[in-house]
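Posting for a labmate who doesn't have an account.
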Amino acid sequence: MAATSPQQESQAIPSRITGRSVLFGTLTAIVLNVYTDHAGLVMGSSSLVKSQYPMAMLLPFVLWLFTNIGLKTFWPKAALSGTELLVIYSMSWIAGVIPLEGWAAYWTSTMAVPTYYASPENRWTEIIFDILPWWTLPDVSPAVIRPFYDGLSPYSSIPWAGWLQPLFWWTAISLAVFAAGLCLCILFQRQWENHERLAFPLAQFAIELTSGFDQPGRVPGIFRNKIFWAGFFTVFGVFAWNILGYFATGLPRITIYAGYLSKQIDLARDFQPIYLRILPPVVGLTYFCNLDILFSFWVLRLVAIVKLGIMDRTGFTLGLANQQAKSSEIINLESHGALVLLAIWSIWAARGHLSRVWQAVVEGRQSVHNDGIISYRMAFIGFVLATAFIIGWMSAMGMSIPIALLQTALLYTAYLTVAKFTAASGFPHLLPIYGKGGGMVYTFVGTANLTPSDFVGTEFVNSSAFFGNNRIPAWPALPHHLKLHGATPNTRIARIAALAFTAGLLASFIFIIYLAYAHGGQNLHTAPFSGRSNSASVRLYSNMTNHILNEQKTVFDPYKMAVWFIGIFEALVLIGLRSRLPWWPLHPIGLAFQNTSGPRIYSFSIFLTWAAKSLFLRIGGIALYRRAAPYFIGLPVGYVTGVIVSSIVDLIWFPTGGHWTHGW
């Protein structure tokens, strides 16, 4: 099946969103959260939330596809339409980063830590207990906290009343951050679709797989395409062979898709290796990305390796005495400057569109380009109210208003940039440098100028308990949700997104609380709970204490800021070259993410996609590029199917000793 143009895509999407599709999408959001949490925390057999486009949502989506093929064949009247499948797809994605290590496991474990792990050695009681925001934490009575980690005694019930307060306040702030993201995406969406013409590879992938269900015939055209099945079995064939090896242990394992530490090229002492990780979903999903973005990811990653290696080999540092930055921090400052410039440029490039948006806000009229979602005035008011709540909540957590304003601006910068360029590239491993921006708060302000309450509030907001970690819930999915359904004359688009997010959030939060009491939090797997006194949740409170006690406080450092401004300047130069030279091959996005885990681990996969796409376009032009598209669509479908089959085999025959199938 040939790749479609954006115009063809919108025509291919039916307009009707049914009640059953919203119901199935909500149930899928709940079930995927519960299953992912159980598989990771109780079984310890999988970690399905590794990116902005997690396996936790791809698994149920592929299951829905094959289920619908069966319905289409044997019970056509019950089969779902393409639009109904897309509703399930986008709702699953909006809720897909919430469970396990994406967010919920960190939130739950963080809540009960202070009174359980406080000791004379860590000095929490003495240093931070008087300034902790206890109104956001569960009841500190032993009847609530001790069974959370030790497990309930027989015939005891879960003390849910002790968790109502944190559930309320953390759900409230989470919905505010979600609402801010939804409103921002609505304000920018038409700019991204109509003016900048972002590729939306992850939306196009779903459209290609679902549009055929609205056509006559038992099986959609993509599933009758031999090129698609060639891509599918390129990956699934490897899984099938390895699954046979679960039983016939003498069969050699095929490791072409093994984790990133299994294959690497070591360049030289003090130089980071080049990982030869091949992840089929990355190769397949970035096929629809522009060549300059693909090229910048892997080329600027190689440049980063050289820069880091030279600085480490020579021992180069930078900064004022007693607060010098080493190589990784220097590169991170450069990258964050580029990230900020990308955010500023996104606003500048949209100035004409935003001017029309503002006019619609002032006049209170509904834009003809915004029909079916909510008005621009409503989106703007919603954004302002959500932002005011976020800043007020941060202030109540202990931050001063200026620090809360800075923190919110940095969070929006990171989240909106990742959301936009995930839509532009289809590369789901864009994890923002400095996460929510806490590291840059300390750099801009200096820890010497922060109060103990500032440290507590800043550490809480920048922890994985506050709206996830580098894997961002909902925001990267929202532009795709609007892309897939924004042309539909239906006023439920925003409410459907909010329903998916809320359902997934509450399902994960409540289910993990249940698991902790049922099994004992100390017995649960994965980073938030494992390690006990050294877990990530325990380190959060130790970090607060250490910042307050640290006698070597940092101050504003002009040398570090110079590196930050260099990153801004470099990104500006790359943007200028792209504007003036049509052939210029480098996009500044590669600079903003040069030392993050995405390009570091998957640059080889991106290189393979770039090389294949470049070759196709050079040899056969756009016709060959479109003809090859089904092969690349088949790669992630084959990979996800392999993970599903392996999980089922493990569940039946190896329930206590599962086999590795997916990870970094």
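Reply:
Got it, the structure tokens are right above this. Residues 6-118+156-653 form one domain.
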